[in-house]
Design brief:
By secondary structure, the chain is α/β, with parallel strands linked by helices. It has a single domain, classed as EAL domain (TIM Barrel), CATH 3.20.20.450. The protein has nine helices and ten strands. Strands 1-2-4-5-6-7-8-9 form an eight-stranded mixed beta barrel, surrounded by five helices. Helix 8 links the parallel strand 8 and strand 9. The longest helix is centred in the N-terminal third of the chain and has 22 residues. The chain is globular and about 45 Å long. The model has no long low-confidence stretch (mean pLDDT 94). The chain binds guanosine-5'-monophosphate and manganese (II) ion (MN). Manganese (II) ion binds next to loops.
């Protein structure tokens, strides 16, 4: 029986300051011959915790670099963000493997950001720190994903080589009516600013979410309000339209 294939989708990241497209997050989708498009939650955890985690990541990296080559034609400096499963940070040659792939292209490391989720990175910070620091020194961006769902102390945040804080969508979508959630969103954006990190609001689903994140001076938005994750050709068309 055919199992289909894993393909990359791309979700735009939009500047809340000038409305320009600044990059895209690469998201895996499984095109199943019988079940159609399977969302990541249903299969990714399985891959990321098994022996295929590293080959899957390196394959996604190659796909992302190909995409960046094309996207940079339309918009020089266009950035891609990839989810990096935290267990891979313990692979001793991860950084070498990533840089070896990058060196086959002429894409600067600064055009690639690796996202790690707050919960997993903070539960084993010591083991993660040296690989994250090495990636940062090479010039890659490092984002904390789903910020607000885990527990990071201020001290840990200051110690980590992050360049970007992605605020979890539970503090972004439909929070105007909820004073506590609104305070968390405000605090997260303020922390980003204090630590000179780029703040990204995840899950901007409607006009109200967009307006709020903008008014709170969040830097970047991502979510259904701008676009759902798109297959490559649609993403390139979106990019062309936005950069006209
Ligand atoms: O945690 P991470 O940022 O990697 O999650 C990305 C996931 O969030 C993707 O599977 C994507 O389809 C989903 N997603 C993207 N934008 C939105 C949104 O506006 N609302 C909701 N509910 N989910 C979103
Ligand atoms: Mn992510």
């Amino acid at each position: 029986m055919q199992s289909g294939e894993i393909i990359a989708y791309y979700q735009p990241k939009i500047s809340l300051i000038d409305d320009q497209i600044v990059g895209a997050e690469v998201l895996a989708r499984w095109q199943h011959p019988k079940h159609g498009m399977v969302p990541p939650a249903a299969f990714l955890e399985h891959i990321e915790n098994g022996p295929l985690a590293l080959p899957h990541f390196l394959f996604q990296l190659a796909t992302t670099l190909d995409f960046l080559k094309e996207a940079s034609i339309y918009l020089p400096g266009f950035c891609a963000s990839m989810n990096l499963p935290v267990p891979l940070l313990s692979e001793h040659d991860l950084v070498d493997k990533i840089t070896a792939q990058l060196e086959q292209t002429n894409i600067p490391a600064a055009q690639l950001t690796f996202e790690v989720t707050e919960t997993s990175v903070m539960s084993n910070l010591k083991a993660c720190l040296s690989t994250l620091t090495r990636l940062r020194i090479k010039g890659f961006g490092i984002a904390m994903d789903d910020y607000g769902t885990g527990y990071s102390s201020m001290k840990q945040l200051a110690k980590c080589p992050f360049t970007e804080l992605k605020i979890d969508r539970s503090f972004v979508h439909a929070v105007t009516e909820d004073q506590k959630l609104l305070s968390i969103l405000t605090a997260a954006i303020n922390i980003s600013q204090e630590l000179e990190l780029t703040s990204v609001a995840e899950g901007v689903e409607d006009f109200e979410d967009w307006r709020l994140a903008r008014n709170l001076n969040c830097d970047i938005g991502q979510g259904f309000y701008f676009s759902r994750p798109l297959p490559k050709q649609e993403m390139l068309a979106y990019l062309m339209k936005r950069s006209e």
